[in-house]
Amino acid sequence: ILVRQYYHSDIDPTARRIALHRVRELQSRYPALLQPEALAGAFSTLPTDVTLVSSQHLQQATHQSPAKQWLVVAGWPCQDFSTAGLSQGMTGRRALLLHDLVRIIGTLQ
User: Which residue stretches of the chain have pLDDT < 50?
Assistant: First the structure.
């Protein structure tokens, strides 16, 4: 799949470094599918805290790359869903990040 633009948002600095390393590795393996211009602004266009990503940020991103399709990949802490944790489910503080993901996807539609 040709990637026209890549954006990354993660509050954890270690996760950002790992993502940058991995995307560079993918770029070296698949240069025709992940060209250097696809990474322009990849780690600076969106806020690192996904809860702060606004519709204005997403409009800026879509303006930079007017792609017709978006692939959103996300993960969030699972402690609120785990029986090993407090089992707070969707009412847990960490689980609330799912609401931000739904909001972001809704904005992109």
Answer: none
